[in-house]
Amino acid sequence: MINRPVVGIDVAKKFCYYAAVSSDCTTFLKPFKALNTKQGLLFVLGEIKKVEEALSSKPVIALESTGHYSQRIVHFFLKQGFEVYHINPLISHSIKNSVVRKVKTDRVDALELARLLFVHTFHPTTIPQEPLANLKILTRTRGQLVMQRVESLNKLQSTIEQIAPLFPDVLSPGSLTALTLVSKFPTPCEWTKKANQTAIMEMLETLPRKGKSYAQQKYAALLSCADDAQVTGISLSAYACAIQCYASIVQSLDAQISALNQQIKVLSEQIPGVALLKSIPGVGETLAPIILGEIGNIDRFMSAKQLVAFSGIDPSVKQSGNFVGTKNKVTKRGSPLLRHALYIAATTSIRKESKGSQVNSVIYAYYQRKIETKTKKQALGAIMNKLLRIIFSVLKNQKTFQLISPAQQIEMYQRNLRKVA
After folding, report:
1. Distances in whole angstroms, Cα of residue 319 to Cα of each of 94, 329, 333
2. Per-residue confidence band for 88, with pLDDT thresholds at 50, 70 and 90
3. In this structure, are residues 21 and 27 in contact, taking their beta carbons and an 8 Å threshold?
4. Which helix (H) or strand (E) holds 248?
5. pTM (2 d.p.)
6. Model confidence over 25-56: pLDDT tens digits?
7. What is the pLDDT of residue 98?
């Protein structure tokens, strides 16, 4: 709840509607439109200044989270020193449906967003720390490029299989060797030409770095693949063009991902939280920056339970009368990137290393107990929850992770209690 004037903003791409209500929730400034330009935003500041002078109180800002459109508006008002409330659309949509009449306009939405602060309690938005904001942008960009690479690689493989079905059995289409080969010699008939033999053998020998015998073996397999393709493949010249296009895209994405990895690595070295997360078995060079970038400043969360809810891995609740739901799924209301990173960390934590030992023996033992009464997916969800609580503790206490058994943890807890007493 709030007892100050509120300016509600309905955000669009090129303009916004603004409306102000006084501290008693009555309309003070009728909705008006302003462009999202320098001139438009400065005009809005002048109107808000008039509200402040008339009501002798600095207004707060309320607007709905509308992706990248609202981010710039939030950042602008935070820089101007305003208290800003960035509202989840799930909440703002609920109050819009609280009236019987079906009225949905930008003007009405601006007023309703302003009034929403008088019936709900929200936490104000803050400007994220610059290193963490940069880390989030870089890791999200890398994630998008990785998804594009997977899509392009799938298209490349499906196209190659049209002209040479056995090629994926000879070389992995996503490998540097395969990409270099099909970029220069995209069709089976080119693999069998005597004039290309030296160049192909050099690729097979130097790129994988596995020696001459490996290159000879692969070249023989490639010739066999080309011979099979004469019967099973489709000989259309357009496929050669498509293969070269997809291979070029994948190679370009590989270069961009590599450059982003280097930037993320340099930035991660400047952020202590990344090193703290890497101390947790199962969280490595790739996952630690993603997780920290999505969480942001850990001081935003008062408890591990809040962080679990933020990530969307808290269970939903269904109850009505005497009915209590038992097959409840996780809410999935938070960051999907954070959930994906936690899932990868969970699956890594229960694996065994090459020498046979567990990556994280305590988490592995916890997982084994869970699968006695739950399905494997439910047990993995419990592991994700536990890992997130460990992450909260590590970041909140600014201490590296120490692998201790549950019995040791209980003993440590009781010892601390005795010290307090």
Report:
1. 20, 14, 19
2. confident
3. yes
4. helix 237-268
5. 0.87
6. 888 999 999 999 999 999 999 999 999 999 99
7. 64
| Per-residue confidence (pLDDT) for residue 139, from 0 to 100 | 96
Beta-carbon contacts of 396 under 8 Å, excluding residues fewer than 6 positions away, are: 298
Q: What is the pLDDT of residues 393-418, one digit of tens each?
A: 999 999 998 877 777 777 877 887 77
Residue 296 contacts residue 132 (beta carbons within 8 Å): yes
- C-alpha–C-alpha distance, residues 192 and 211, integer Å: 21
Strand stretches in 290-396, DSSP E:
319-320, 323-324
> What would the two tokens of residue 123 be?
């936490």
Among all chains, which residue has been given the structure tokens 């033999």? 197
What pLDDT digit, counting tens, does each position of 356-373 carry? 778 888 888 889 998 888
pLDDT tens readout for residues 112-146 = 899 898 888 888 998 888 999 999 999 999 999 99
CB atoms within 10 A of CB 172: 14
Q: What is the pLDDT of residue 417?
A: 77
Give the distance, in angstroms, between the CA of residue 382 and the centroid of all CA atoms in the same chain.
20
* Angle CA 322–326–330, to nearest 5: 125
- Is the model's pLDDT at 261 over the cut of 70? yes
Instruction: State the Cα–Cα distance between residues 183 and 177, nearest whole angstrom.
Output: 10
Question: b or e along 115-126 (b: 16 or more beta carbons within 10 Å of the residue's beta carbon)?
Answer: bbbeeeebeebe
**C-alpha count within 13 angstroms, C-beta hemisphere, residue 366:** 23
CA distance 295 to 391: 10
Distance between CA atoms of residues 195 and 207, nearest Å: 20
What are the two backbone dihedrals, phi and then psi, of residue 286, each rounded to the nearest 5 degrees? -85, -45
Three-state DSSP state, 209: coil
End-to-end CA separation in angstroms for the chain: 39
CA distance to 10, 65, 247, per residue, from 34 (Å): 11, 18, 47
248-256 own/partner pairs: CB under 8 Å, 24+ apart: 248/183, 249/152, 250/149, 250/152, 250/153, 250/156, 250/174, 250/179, 251/179, 251/183, 253/145, 253/148, 253/149, 253/152, 254/149, 254/179, 256/145
